[in-house]
Design goal:
Elements lengths: L1 H22 L14 E5 L4 H12 L3 E6 L2 H15 L4 E5 L5 H14 L5 E4 L15 H23 L3 E6 L21 H25 L5 E7 L6 H4 L7 H11 L3 H4 L1 H8 L10 E3 L2 E3 L8 H14 L35 H4 L28
Parallel strand pairs: 1-2, 1-4, 2-3, 4-5, 5-6, 6-7
Antiparallel strand pairs: 7-8
Helix pairs in contact: 2-3, 4-5, 5-6, 6-11
Length: 377
């Protein structure tokens, strides 16, 4: 009996150590008030995205849930309005697998929303499921769609600067190896899906790095965020039905709840003083070094050019990055029942030494800064 109790005690002790060191997420304590700011969160109808949107809404932001399913998106918006007490939570349709849908979303958003302070690319897939497309569906949803959306929304991000772009990545990027000769080939079989998922997460990290270079001096900063091991729909979505009852208790024990997974993306979106770390990769609310493959500036630029082609961007759509280009007038809100307070000043939003004036883009290659260590959560 004593041996049994000792064994149970050791197991409980080991679990507590694992939980507090690997599972439990440090809380984000960024900006307390986001009144007058607007945020877009993709894939916000469930899981990490919904918890991220909830925290932004609780801080007073106007939050746009960009989701594929109207039914689930509207239901999530209703839930978040009820839970946060913030009526400025709305749904807009966005299917990242469809470039036409991405463009349609951008058109509607730019015509109705005068600000965009935070863009969080949370939506993603880990498997193609039963869908068969003539392109790499994982790369399309996890990288190409977000790449195009960022490109189309940059005028609004710039006029709202200082603003931020957060790309939710994963530790799986460490297994990624981009093959530019077959970047968009269809994915068949679970082995190819595992590889394609890791590649798409590596693309996320390289995208944030190159975007930081492209937007140097504009007041728009960007970050790649790893949410940690999270018990979300993404984890169980493609698990066989008979296996789910066995995995759910295990997932509850060893994986973070979606609220915990939202902390690092929120940190990247809200934490003051991390602007000099634009382009870096964050996990557990602090910056982390990545493998050489994930900080290869040449590969990042090559991916940028390949992504432009896969996103269908033509030469005439380079204006967002041209030095002398001026963003279009943001217009007015679409609904008088949802007024937008006048936007805050730069010092009110992100008090930092970085100036939001001077919109010119530096065209030379700029190494991503790493001299500042942000404060812990």
């Amino acid at each position: 009996m004593e041996a049994l109790l000792l064994g149970v005690g050791l197991l409980l002790g080991a679990y507590v150590l694992v939980y507090y060191n690997l599972v439990k997420a440090p809380p984000c304590r960024g900006l307390a008030s986001l009144r007058g700011r607007t945020a877009v969160v993709t894939g916000a109808n469930s899981g990490i995205g919904k918890m991220t949107a909830l925290e932004l809404a609780r801080r007073g932001a106007r939050v746009v849930l960009a989701c594929r399913s109207r039914e689930r998106g509207e239901a999530a918006a209703f839930d978040l309005r009820q839970e946060s007490g913030n009526n400025e939570v709305i749904f807009m349709t966005l299917d990242l697998a469809s470039l036409a849908s991405v463009r349609a979303f951008a058109t509607v958003f730019l015509s109705s929303e005068p600000r965009l302070d935070i863009l969080i690319h949370n939506a993603g897939i880990s498997s193609c499921g039963r869908t068969r497309e003539p392109f790499n569906l994982l790369l399309r949803v996890n990288h190409i769609g977000p790449f195009l959306l960022t490109h189309l929304l940059l005028p609004r991000l710039k006029t709202s600067a200082p603003s931020r772009v957060v790309v939710v990545s994963s530790a799986a990027h460490r297994r990624g190896r981009l093959d530019f000769t077959r970047l968009d080939r269809p994915v068949v079989g679970w082995r190819q899906e595992l590889r394609a998922y890791a590649d798409s997460k590596l693309a996320n990290v390289l995208f944030a790095r190159e975007l930081a270079t492209q937007l140097e001096g504009t007041g728009v900063t960007c970050y790649a965020a790893h949410p940690g091991p999270v018990n979300s729909e993404l984890f169980l979505r493609h698990v066989p039905g008979w296996l789910r009852p066995l995995l759910r208790p295990l997932a509850w024990l060893v994986l973070r709840a979606p609220r915990g997974g939202a902390q690092t993306p929120l940190y990247c979106a809200l934490q003051e003083g991390i602007e000099p770390l634009s382009g870096r990769y964050f996990a557990n609310c602090h910056v982390e070094e990545v493998l050489p493959v994930a900080r290869d500036d040449r590969a990042a630029h090559r991916l940028w050019e390949a992504s432009r082609k896969l996103a269908g961007l033509g030469p005439g759509e380079d204006a967002e990055f041209d030095e002398d280009s001026q963003p279009e007038d943001p217009g007015t809100p679409s609904s008088p029942s949802s007024p937008h307070p006048e936007g805050p000043t730069a010092s009110e939003l992100y008090p930092s030494p970085q100036s939001s004036t001077g919109r010119s883009t530096v065209t030379r290659r700029i190494p991503v800064k790493d001299e500042l260590e942000p404060q812990a959560c």
